Amino acid sequence: MMPQANLPRPWRPGSLLWLSLAIHLGALALCVLQPPLWPWAALAVVLNHGVITAVGLWPRSRALGPNWTRLPEAAIQRREIAITIDDGPDPEVTPRVLDLLDAYGAHATFFCIGTTAETHPALVREVVARGHHVENHSHRHRHHFSLLGFSGFVAEIGRAQTSLGQLTGRTPRFFRAPAGLRNPFLEPALARLGLQLAAWTRRGFDTRCGEVDTVFERLSHALAPGDILLLHDGHAARTADGTPVILPVLERLLETCRAQQLVPVTLEAASR
Hints:
Elements: H1 15-33, H2 38-56, H3 73-77, E1 80-88, H4 94-103, E2 109-112, H5 114-119, H6 121-129, E3 133-136, H7 150-168, E4 174-175, H8 186-193, E5 196-197, E6 202-203, H9 212-220, E7 228-232, H10 246-259, E8 263-264, H11 267-270
Parallel strand pairs: 1-2, 1-7, 1-8, 2-3, 4-5, 6-7
């Protein structure tokens, strides 16, 4: 049975969007009232679009809307961290990731691609059966995702909501954009779907780097309660011997969490 959809939440444009609106209206007024000054009006609009584009290319920015880059204060007080795992499920890698998490009594959040989840439905259900949460990483993980408009975002993300909800019996509450890239239309689409954008505190770049020490250092440097860590079971880089780099890195991370008395939890558990 399809779980109940999330309730829409209010969309509140931030100061950057209000400023952008003011710049566009001011540029229009300048062109009407002082036509010879239209090049300056055009320049102001171009510069404004440049700023918005730069912000959209910064995955951890909050200028386009709410964005989790750390866990809430209550989770920090409980010494919780979030291990988030993107781009799966992968039939070779994900079962081994699940075994490692089981061995340390840890829970993680899997940001799954809708089409990939549909290809491996039993594996998605196994993720949930082992106590983890599946969240929304778009339906197709398209390279031009950040160029979509409002209706495109609603369709793409909403389709993944439906697929993942049917597979797991739980409607995702969090969304992570492919590569973390977005534009001003994403936040109102997420508000319509009742989703919260989640980025990360730090990432290991483990789809491009197969050096275990390097990836581990990127993730564990100054590790602290409240951190959100990003790894990949899908598209994982390989070590020199062909091992998906996430596996040795994750084991070292879990050992570090145990030594520092940090508790890996799902994003939803951290929000309570």
